[in-house]
Amino acid sequence: MSTTGALGEWDEKDSAGKPAPKLYFASVEIFVGKYLLDMYRRPVSSTGTTWCPEWWLHPEARLRLETMWRAWEHLRLEAATGMSVWLREHADYHMAVLLSSDGPFKGCTESSTPSGPCARCEATRRPKGCLSLVRPHD
């Protein structure tokens, strides 16, 4: 089962049996392209902070980004501290690993993205058939 476009059948109802809230971002690809890369702006280079526009080709990156999306979808509903918890416990941790010079994008280059301060990382569209790594029932 692909989780693209849904968080999976285990999320259709909450713990009280009520219907789960509607997703804000329909897929991890939309979450990354429309939210995460606008929020996390870092200078990118092949020797320091690294990013790959084809992030979906890297299994570790797919897993980390999908879990960040799932956590964001859950924590956005906690008005008081949800985003703070998401940033501290999820985004900051996983983005540090992803953008690390020794992270899953080691050796990738991004010649089309400016490497100056606050440069926006880019992402290319994931081809159809490239399934998410997170599949709970496989």
Could you please describe the fold and organization of this structure?
This protein has 138 residues and is mostly helical. The protein has 3 helices and no strands. α2 runs antiparallel to α3. The radius of gyration is 15 Å and the shape is globular. 21% of the residues are buried.
Question: Which parts are unreliable, with pLDDT below 50 for 5 consecutive residues or more?
Answer: 1-7, 112-119, 133-138
Radius of gyration: 15 Å
The largest sheet, given as strand count, sense and whether it forms a barrel, is: none
Specify the helix fraction band: 25-40%
Task: Tell me the number of structural domains.
Answer: 1
Topology pattern, helix = H, strand = E: HHH
- Structural class estimated from helices and strands: mainly alpha
In angstroms, what separates the terminal alpha carbons?
A: 8 Å
Mean residue pLDDT: 77
What is the 3D shape? globular
How many H/I helices?
3
DSSP, total strands: 0
Strand content: under 5%
Question: What is the secondary structure topology, with strand pairs?
Answer:
Blueprint: H1 28-39, H2 59-75, H3 82-99
What tags apply to this protein structure?
globular; 138 residues; disordered N terminus; mainly alpha
Question: Quick gist of this model?
Answer:
By secondary structure, this protein is an all-alpha fold. The protein has helices at about 30-40, 60-75, 80-100.
